[in-house]
C-alpha cells in the first residue's frame, strides 16, 4: 500500500510541472478530496435526479414542471461558464474568484430549507414558484463558480493525475452521498412533511459549508497568462475557435445529443414511484442505487481515462446508455427497473467524469478556459431543453414515447463520438513528437 501511495505522488519525467504544483500537490489533493466528500454528502439531500423531482411532485402533477428541476440543474451549471472565460484567461490565479463565488454556491441550500419550512403557509402554486426560483438560484450559482473551480483543479492537479483524482474524489464523495441517502430515507419517514425536507436541506447546508473550508485550503501558484486581443469580443472568439477547430465543434454535437438523451434519466425516479405506487421515501432508494452505481463507475472510468483517454470513456458510456434506455422499453417489474436505473447511472458517471476532463485537453494553456466554457455554455441549452421536451412527451404521448426519443438521441451521440471525433490527447502527442 505504501508503494502504491508513493507511486501516486510521483510524476512522469516527461511531464512539465510547475515547481509549486509539485510542492503542494499532496496538500491540494487532500484538500480537494475533502471538499468533494462534504459537497456530495450535502448535495445528496437535494439530489437533482431523485430527491428534488419527488419533492416538486408533492406540489404539482405536471411532468413539465417536475422536469424543470433537472433542466435547471444542467442549464444552471453549463450556461454561465463561457461568460467567465474572458475574465479568467487574463488572471494569474483562479483561487480569489473561487473563494468569492464559492460562498454563493452554498447559501441556496439554506434558502431551500427556509422555502420548505414556509410551504404550510403558502398555497401550492406559490410554494412551487418559490422552490423553483430558489433551485434556479442554486443551479446558476454553481454554474458561476464551475469554470474557475475547474480551472483551479486543472492548475493544481497535473494532467497525469487528473483522471485518478476525479475517480477517487468522486468515489469518496459518492460514498458520503450514500450515507446522506440513508439519512434521507430515515428523515422522510420519521419527520412530517414538509419539515422532513427542511431538515434535509439544513443538513445539506451544514455539509457544503464544511466543504468550503477545505476548498479554500488550496495553494495555487502564480502562473503568468496572457489575455489575447482576440478574446475581447466573445462572439468573435467563439466563431474563431469553432472555425479553426472542427474536431471540437463535432465534440459539441456529441454533447448536445447526449444531453437530449438524458431526458430518460431525469424522469426515471418519478416514473418508478408513479408506476409502482411507491411512497416518496422510496426516492432515497433510487438515490442510493444511483450513488452505488456511480461509485463503481468513477473508479473504473477514472483509470480508463488516464490510460486510454476520455474519448474511449465517452464512447463506452454512450454505448451503455443505449443499452439502458433500450431496456426501459421492456421492463415490467420494479426489480428490473432498479437494474436498468443502475446501468444508466453507471453510464452517466462515465459521461460526468469525461465532462470534467475531455474539454481540458483541447486548446492551449491560455485559451483552455474558453474551450471549457464553450463546451459547457454552448451545449447548456440542450440540457435545459431535454427535461422540458421529455416532460411534454410524457404529458401528451406517455413515458414510452419519451424513452424512444431519448434512445434515438443516444444512438446519434454514440455515432458522433465513435466515428467523427478525434482524440485531442493523441493529436497533442503527435505534435509533441513530430
Question: Mind explaining what this structure looks like?
Answer:
There is one protein chain. This protein has 21 helices and no strands. The protein starts with a helix and ends with a helix. The chain has helices at residues 2-8, 19-23, 25-43, 51-57, 63-78, 82-89, 95-118, 124-156, 159-190, 195-215, 234-244, 246-261, 263-266, 268-275, 283-308, 310-328, 334-357, 368-377, 380-397, 399-419, 424-433. With 434 residues, it is mostly helical. Helix 7 runs antiparallel to helix 8 (124-156) and helix 9 (159-190) runs antiparallel to helix 15. The chain is globular. The longest helix has 33 residues, at 124-156. The model is unreliable at 429-434 (pLDDT under 50). It has a single domain, classed as Growth Hormone, Chain: A (Up-down Bundle), CATH 1.20.1250.20. The chain is 78% helix and 0% strand.
Mean pLDDT: 87
The tally of beta strands, per DSSP, is: 0
Class by SSE composition: mainly alpha
The helix fraction, in percent, is over 70%
Second CATH tier, the architecture:
Up-down Bundle
Topology as a string of helices (H) and strands (E): HHHHHHHHHHHHHHHHHHHHH
The CATH topology turns out to be Growth Hormone, Chain: A
Put simply, the count of helices is: 21
The CATH superfamily name is MFS general substrate transporter like domains
Overall geometric form: globular
Amino acid at each position: 500500500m505504501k508503494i502504491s501511495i508513493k507511486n501516486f505522488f510521483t510524476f512522469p519525467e516527461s511531464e512539465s510541472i510547475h515547481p509549486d504544483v509539485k510542492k503542494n500537490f499532496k496538500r491540494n489533493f487532500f484538500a480537494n478530496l475533502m471538499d468533494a466528500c462534504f459537497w456530495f454528502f450535502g448535495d445528496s439531500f437535494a439530489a437533482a435526479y431523485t430527491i428534488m423531482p419527488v419533492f416538486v411532485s408533492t406540489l404539482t402533477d405536471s411532468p413539465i414542471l417536475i422536469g424543470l428541476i433537472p433542466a435547471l440543474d444542467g442549464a444552471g451549471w453549463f450556461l454561465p461558464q463561457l461568460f467567465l472565460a474572458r475574465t479568467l484567461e487574463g488572471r494569474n490565479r483562479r483561487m480569489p474568484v473561487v473563494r468569492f463565488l464559492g460562498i454563493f454556491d452554498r447559501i441556496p441550500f439554506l434558502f431551500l430549507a427556509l422555502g420548505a419550512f414556509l410551504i404550510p403557509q403558502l398555497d401550492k402554486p406559490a410554494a412551487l414558484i418559490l422552490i423553483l426560483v430558489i433551485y434556479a438560484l442554486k443551479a446558476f450559482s454553481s454554474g458561476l463558480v464551475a469554470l474557475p473551480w475547474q480551472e483551479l483543479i486543472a492548475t493544481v492537479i497535473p494532467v497525469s493525475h487528473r483522471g485518478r483524482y476525479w475517480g477517487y474524489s468522486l468515489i469518496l464523495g459518492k460514498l458520503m452521498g450514500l450515507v446522506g441517502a440513508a439519512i434521507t430515507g430515515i428523515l422522510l419517514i420519521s419527520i412530517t412533511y414538509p419539515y422532513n425536507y427542511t431538515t434535509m436541506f439544513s443538513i445539506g447546508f451544514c455539509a457544503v459549508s464544511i466543504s468550503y473550508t477545505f476548498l479554500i485550503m488550496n495553494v495555487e501558484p502564480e502562473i503568468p497568462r496572457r489575455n489575447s486581443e482576440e478574446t475581447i469580443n466573445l462572439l468573435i472568439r467563439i466563431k474563431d475557435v469553432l472555425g479553426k477547430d472542427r474536431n471540437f465543434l463535432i465534440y459539441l454535437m456529441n454533447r448536445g445529443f447526449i444531453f437530449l438523451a438524458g431526458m430518460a434519466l431525469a424522469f426515471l425516479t418519478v416514473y418508478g414511484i408513479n408506476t409502482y405506487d411507491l411512497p416518496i421515501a422510496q426516492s432515497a432508494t433510487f438515490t442510493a442505487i444511483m450513488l452505488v452505481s456511480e461509485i463503481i463507475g468513477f473508479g473504473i472510468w477514472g483509470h480508463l481515462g488516464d490510460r486510454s483517454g476520455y474519448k474511449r470513456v465517452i464512447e463506452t458510456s454512450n454505448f451503455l446508455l443505449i443499452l439502458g434506455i433500450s431496456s426501459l422499453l421492456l421492463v415490467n417489474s420494479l426489480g428490473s427497473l432498479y437494474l436498468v436505473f443502475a446501468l444508466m447511472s453507471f453510464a452517466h458517471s462515465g459521461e460526468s467524469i469525461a465532462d470534467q476532463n475531455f474539454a481540458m485537453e483541447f486548446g492551449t494553456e491560455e485559451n483552455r478556459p474558453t474551450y471549457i466554457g464553450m463546451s459547457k455554455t454552448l451545449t447548456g441549452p440542450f440540457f435545459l431543453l431535454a427535461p422540458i421536451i421529455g416532460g411534454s412527451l410524457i404529458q401528451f404521448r406517455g413515458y414510452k414515447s419519451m424513452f424512444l426519443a431519448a434512445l434515438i438521441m443516444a444512438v446519434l451521440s454514440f455515432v458522433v463520438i465513435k466515428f467523427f471525433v478525434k482524440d485531442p490527447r493523441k493529436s497533442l502527442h503527435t505534435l509533441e513528437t513530430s
